[in-house]
Design a protein that fits this description.
Layout: E1 2-9, E2 21-24, E3 29-33, H1 40-51, E4 77-85, H2 89-94, E5 99-102, E6 105-116, E7 127-133, H3 144-150, E8 153-155, H4 161-164, H5 172-178, H6 198-201, H7 206-218, H8 221-238, H9 257-265, H10 286-303, E9 310-314, H11 322-336, E10 347-351, H12 355-360, E11 366-370, E12 373-376, H13 386-395, E13 408-412, H14 415-427, E14 437-441, H15 447-452, E15 468-472, H16 481-484, H17 493-497, H18 513-527, E16 535-539, H19 545-566, H20 568-572, H21 578-594, H22 599-611, H23 617-633, H24 639-645, H25 648-657
Parallel strand pairs: 3-10, 3-11, 8-9, 9-10, 13-14, 13-15, 15-16
Antiparallel strand pairs: 1-2, 1-4, 4-6, 5-6, 6-7, 11-12
Length: 670
């Protein structure tokens, strides 16, 4: 049995629109991702309210938990429904009177409802809570035994793992160990036949060992001597005639086997051993203690024979360095698919802000929480196909996983765009960090695959309001470029036709201007074929990023940046100075501009700096970003002036990614 769906009405940020908020969970690991205040913690708390937690932590509903509408009207009723699927025969037996039947499937619904009472009764009881079976709460009330079987293990975000694993009355470790199946195994202690050897004592149960300890303490010479002294020297002298006052010193323990066992377990603590010496070390860091705590909880959930094997973890990455986060994710995935005999599969629902963790979790196990809606990234919910999921499993790393936490996304084809575009956006007054926009560099592959992550298979069930701007090269040269770049020996048709090539120029689309325009338009349409919903592809106006920058008006600046990139090593080694290199590049560009007859030819000569491998595009982008920033800071370049010097497709992409997408938020998505 596992928690398959959660529905929420009027709890915190989740209202009661025409379609209530609903989220589906996987049988194994489900990760809730998204920006702050999206509702991830509210989902965790909703589950805790319905199912309660194993540590018996008191979690009280607060007045502010009732949803407040945009019109500042507070709702008076909260409804939360948990749906459980794949019930095993023993589950059906345990919850027989609470089950629902949906065709051939047997499911369990648990509805938790809270009603705010009128002000006249608020002094005594301000809220009425009911927990009933059935999707609409028409079934019987769940008794205490049923709710105890549904209790979940919960790890809070700012958890004190060291305290949880320490000894003490009611400690979490004692609770975990008490539920461990083998904890009570062993023989009882017989006072008339105490164990003669240590090996005999080891066969006793923990309660039996407690009795043995009591027996040994009571018989200790120091204890018996003190007892005799109290009796002989004091009590007998204080006794009245005919009165026999005597005392007995004994080891304090519980009266029942259960109490004895709890007292022993509450004296135990869990700690890590030193790797080299193999003995307990004084204190470990928060990260190591958290790993220990999670391992202990998973051990209990996997071993105990009954109860719901569900673990809720808020921010499992807390206190863990990146490599340990990845190891933790592998560990949780293993716990969800156990191979050891006697180990149950554990369902894990976690919330995270870590791109590192998100990149390790299979995409189909992610649920993106956005604008009070849940968007599953499972195969049937997105526009990704099976091949896309396999591709992304290989290539979606931590640098790309930040798209799950962004307010907007820009998907680019190379490092040059990733370096330069944030600077251009900031200079235009559209700072990407301020707008919560993430740059995702896909390295010239899979542009559409990454965009389809955030497209929905059924738009009627809700759309993601995250604008996704894909920036693509047109990859068609001006007719003058092949000769300038040395790709052809001449400009006649024979030289072009005999060349084995993977590039294209405008003349390949026809000899006249109209035919070329139609061919280029068809190519643009093909590159934008996957657009729709919240995704829009912005294709280079002319050819590629560097050429278009030069063509639009930044030719001289780009030429200087490319020259600096070509001299990056001597500049870093102080064999050349930046001022001298920039001055020489400026003079060289001026001479080049005088000797060219068209914008296409001049821009092609600038691009030739990269084609000949003399300059790195990424390094040139960095120099260009610094150059433009210095000019704006010195008052030589305003945002309006830069706007006229940039290619239009870059400006449009930045404006789209930093803008907002209106949508109908009434439809929930699962």
């Amino acid at each position: 049995m596992y928690l398959s769906e959660l529905t929420i009405k009027n709890f915190r940020q989740f209202g009661d629109g025409k379609t209530p908020f609903s989220v589906e969970f996987n049988r194994g690991v489900t990760a809730l991702v998204g920006e702050n205040d999206a509702g991830k913690t509210a989902i965790m708390d909703a589950i805790r309210l319905v199912l309660q937690t194993r540590d018996a932590d008191y979690f009280k509903l607060q007045p502010e938990d009732f949803h407040i509408t945009p019109q500042r009207v507070q709702k008076t009723e909260i409804e939360i429904v948990c749906r459980f699927s794949d019930l095993a025969p023993e589950d059906r037996g345990a919850f027989a009177e609470y089950l629902s039947y949906e065709g051939a499937e047997v499911v369990l619904y648990v509805q938790w409802r809270a009603r705010r009472l009128s002000d006249s009764t608020a002094a005594r009881r301000w809220v009425d809570i009911s927990v009933r079976a059935g999707q609409s709460g028409t079934g019987p009330n769940l008794d205490a035994g049923a709710r105890q079987l549904l209790a979940t293990a919960y790890l809070r975000p700012l958890r004190d793992a060291e305290r949880e694993m320490s000894s003490g009355r009611g400690s979490r470790l004692s609770q975990i160990l008490y539920s461990f199946p083998d904890i009570g195994v062993g023989d009882a202690f017989k006072e008339d036949q105490p164990p003669a050897q240590l090996v005999d004592a080891q066969s006793l149960s923990l309660a039996g060992m407690s009795d043995l300890l009591r027996h040994l303490v009571n018989a200790h010479p120091g204890v018996t001597s003190a007892q005799s002294a109290i009796n002989d020297q004091y009590l007998r002298k204080l006794a009245m005639a005919g009165e026999d006052l005597s005392s007995h010193i004994s080891f304090a323990e519980g009266a029942t086997e259960i109490t004895k066992l709890r007292q022993i377990l509450e004296r135990l603590e869990l700690g890590l051993l030193d790797n080299q010496s193999g003995v307990a070390r004084g204190r470990y860091g928060l990260g190591s203690n958290n790993i220990l705590f999670m391992a202990c909880e998973l051990l209990l959930l996997g071993k105990e024979p009954e109860g719901l094997p569900l673990l809720l973890i808020e921010e499992p990455e807390a206190h863990l360095h990146p490599q340990r986060q990845l190891r933790l994710m592998q560990f949780l995935d293993t716990a969800a698919k156990p191979k050891e005999q006697g180990q149950r599969a554990v369902q894990v629902i976690l919330s995270t802000h870590s791109p590192n963790l998100s990149s390790k979790i299979p995409i189909e196990n992610l649920v993106l929480i956005r604008n009070q809606q849940a968007f599953s990234l499972a195969q049937e919910a997105t526009k990704l196909d099976a091949g896309d999921y396999r591709f992304l499993a290989r290539f979606l790393d931590v640098t790309k996983a930040n798209l799950f936490f962004a307010k907007g996304v820009m998907i680019v084809e190379g490092p040059a765009e990733a370096i330069l575009i944030p600077t251009l956006a900031a200079l235009l007054g559209k700072d990407l960090t301020e707008h919560g926009v993430s740059i995702v560099n896909v390295g010239s592959t899979g542009l559409g695959r990454y965009a389809r992550i955030l497209q929905r298979s059924d738009p009627a069930r809700g759309l993601l309001s995250i604008p996704v701007a894909c920036i693509s090269d047109l990859d068609v040269m001006p007719d003058c470029a092949p000769l300038i770049l040395g790709k052809v020996d001449g400009d006649d048709d024979k030289a072009w036709q005999s060349t084995r090539r993977k590039w294209r120029a405008k003349r390949d689309f026809g000899s006249d201007t109209q035919a070329q325009a139609q061919g280029l338009q068809a190519l643009r349409k093909k590159l934008q074929d996957g657009d729709g919903q919240n995704v829009q592809t912005f294709v280079a106006d002319e050819w590629t990023l560097e050429y278009d920058l030069a063509y639009a008006g930044l030719g001289k600046e780009l030429y200087i940046a490319a020259t600096c990139a070509a001299n990056d090593d001597p500049l870093n080694d102080y064999r050349k100075t930046l001022e001298v290199v920039q001055q020489e590049a400026s003079e060289a560009y001026d001479k080049l501009a005088v000797g060219t007859s068209s914008k296409e030819e001049l821009a092609s000569h600038v691009y030739e700096m990269f084609s000949s491998k003399r300059a790195s595009k990424a390094i040139a982008a960095q120099y260009l970003a610094d150059l433009l920033t210095d000019r704006q800071q010195s008052g030589k370049l305003t945002a309006d002036q830069l706007h006229t010097l940039l290619p239009q497709y870059l400006i449009q992409a930045i404006e789209f990614a930093t803008g907002s997408i209106s949508q109908d938020l009434g439809g929930g998505e699962t």
